[in-house]
Amino acid sequence: MNDILLSKIKRDILKVLPDSKAIIAFGSVADDSYVKGVSDIDILVVLDGNLDKEKLLDFNFGEDLPVDVMLTSTEQLSKNIYFISKTQQREMHSIEKYQIKYQSKLIFGNTDILDLIPDISIKEALEDVMPYVKNVFIKQLRDGLEATDDICKFLTENINILLVVIRTIYSKDNGELVSKIKALDYVGIQYGLTKLCNYLKSVYKKEKLNNAKTPGKESIMQLLEILYLK
Predict the structure, then answer these.
(1) Of the residues 34, 89, 90, 189, which has the maximum number of CB atoms within 10 A of its CB?
(2) What separation, in Å, do the N-terminal and C-terminal C-alpha atoms of the chain show?
(3) Domain end: 116, 148, 167, which one?
(4) Distance CA 32, CA 51 (A)
(5) Which helix (H) or strand (E) holds 95?
């Protein structure tokens, strides 16, 4: 299913940017953990020249496809991968670089394009983003947890941030970056948070919860403490 989806996206991009050097899919759509209606589709388009943000306005993949197209240049790939998208202009953080280098799908272009990206280990990537995850995400989650009594709503609204925390815990323990589902299974068993992780898996995959008992605030706080102490 993902290959058919990516073929459509490739055709649509090449209509707008026929001179593209490469089109790279990364994130959940590349590691086959993509969930329709939940996951974003991250696409990096490599150009050989100036980045023209106006071109982004020509993309229209339909409302049911949340495609985030980012433009960069061949020159930037060997540096800090500065990119532009419809919503932001910035340098890619290390986890994104790691995904593009090692866990991506080249859907158009020559495989040599990935050789331009400097090598980066998962350890280096985590050291770079860990302070941000701790200082921003955990504070945001703690503040939200203290302010609500509706745990179901809290878990649903913060599902993507919680999955970042869970995948970061897995990566710190095992030295690799895996799909969100695999990280949920590991953290649930390893840290005695099976109920919480199964609940989050159901929320993420938009499955019926069948009146499953909602995890308590204490299990969510335990999850945050695990990461904060790493």
Answers:
(1) 34
(2) 37
(3) 116
(4) 30
(5) helix 94-102
